[in-house]
């Protein structure tokens, strides 16, 4: 009978090269795919010279030039938007709502949206614009 002798040193070493290869491939995949994850709404914002506001502290309602309404990037109807805003207004400290309206949109459509937001009980409404370029 023959005894097989194992070398404990070789069994305890971990080859990290495949792990590093997989991590680098995943990193490259995520770097390439990250811009495609957020499918933005194409809105040509009007330009203004006012100071910037931190829109991360509130909810965003967008309306494109065709009149489609988006709440936090998700397309919704006016009724569904009103339901969601009523829930926000019912909170103890309701978040502000920021409107991203296309520059080519009719003024009356923006006012109608603002009026509906005010009716839900939200008092802090902001308008998101692009900064004017200095020439």
Known CATH architecture of the largest domain = 2-Layer Sandwich
CATH class category of the largest domain? Alpha Beta
Number of strands: 7
- What general outline do the C-alpha atoms trace? elongated
Describe this protein with a few key phrases.
single chain; 135 residues; alpha/beta; Nucleotidyltransferase, domain 5; 2 domains; two-stranded parallel sheet; 4 helices; 7 strands; 38% helix; elongated
Question: Would you write up a description of this structure?
Answer:
It is a single chain. The strands form two sheets. A five-stranded mixed beta sheet has the order 4-3-2-5-6. Strands 1-7 form a two-stranded parallel sheet. The protein has helices spanning about 10, 15-35, 80-90, 105-120, and strands at about 45-50, 60-65, 70, 75, 95-100, 125, 130. About 40% of the residues lie in helices and about 15% in strands. The radius of gyration is 26 Å and the shape is elongated. The termini are far apart. It has about 140 residues and is of the alpha/beta class. It has two domains: about 10-35; about 45-130, Nucleotidyltransferase, domain 5 (2-Layer Sandwich), CATH 3.30.420.270. The longest helix has 21 residues, at about 15-35. It has four helices and seven strands.
